[in-house]
Each structure stands twice: as structure tokens, then as C-alpha cells.
Design a protein that fits this description.
This protein is an alpha+beta fold and about 130 residues long. The protein has two helices and seven strands; from the N terminus they run βββββββαα.
């Protein structure tokens, strides 16, 4: 990520899983969005970036709210403090649910050992 960002450009670091840009309202504040399964997603089609979900700069004085879709900024409605708090609670719940589901999906050590032994036995049996 360069130290100085250029207006109208979305910078993406796949290595560090982050996207950054200057706020679309023109206030020149840096907006950084982490990328990942519980954060924002980035997609590029024909050289045009899309960042999902919307960007709500609630911590900035401008409190801009917009989408970046197909390389175009699409403005969204301004949120009330209650909507912002509800959105934050929703994000926390989705993050918690995601990681809980990952824990549940991960086999225990005994199950992993059993799977490995079955795989090993199956390979040995097929060689005969």
C-alpha cells in the first residue's frame, strides 16, 4: 500500500488481505477495508473492481456510505446512530457464527487419525 493514495483508485493487497482508497466523498481520509470471509470481498471483472459489502465510514466525520461496484461509486443512504450500532452487532454476530461453524466443521484429532488410517489401509489394499 503506498503511503500517499491517489483519489479514485482502489488499492488491493492480496498478500496482506486489505483494500484501501481515499474516501469517495472527497474528504481525503484513508479508508482501509480488511478482506476475508468475515470482512469485505474483492472481485475484479474486466479490470473493474467490486468491493462488498458497502463501505460505511462511521468513524470519519463525513460518515460516508457507499458501494464500489464495477469500478463505480454508488452512494447509499446515510445511517442513523441506531442503524450503525445495529450493523455493528450484525457484523459481530456473523463473525462469531462463521468461526463457530469452522470449529464445528473441523474434525477432532481422533477423527483425523481414523481418517488417515483408513486412507492408508485403502492404499495398501489397492496395491495388492
Amino acid at each position: 500500500m503506498p503511503k500517499e493514495l491517489e483519489s479514485g483508485l482502489l488499492y488491493v493487497s492480496e498478500e496482506f488481505e486489505v483494500a484501501g482508497h481515499l474516501c469517495a466523498c472527497g474528504c481525503r481520509a484513508k479508508v482501509m477495508t480488511p478482506l476475508g470471509p468475515t470482512e469485505w470481498s474483492f472481485e475484479e471483472v474486466d479490470g473493474q473492481p467490486t468491493l462488498r459489502p458497502s463501505i460505511g465510514s462511521w468513524q470519519l466525520p463525513c460518515q460516508s456510505h457507499y458501494w464500489i461496484i464495477g469500478g463505480t461509486v454508488r452512494w447509499s443512504s446515510k445511517w442513523t446512530p441506531e442503524q450503525i450500532e445495529q450493523g455493528r452487532r450484525g457484523e459481530e454476530e456473523r463473525t462469531r457464527a462463521y468461526f463457530e461453524s469452522r470449529k464445528a466443521a473441523k474434525p477432532g484429532r481422533l477423527a483425523a487419525l481414523w481418517h488417515w488410517l483408513k486412507e492408508l489401509a485403502g492404499r495398501a489394499f489397492r496395491r495388492r
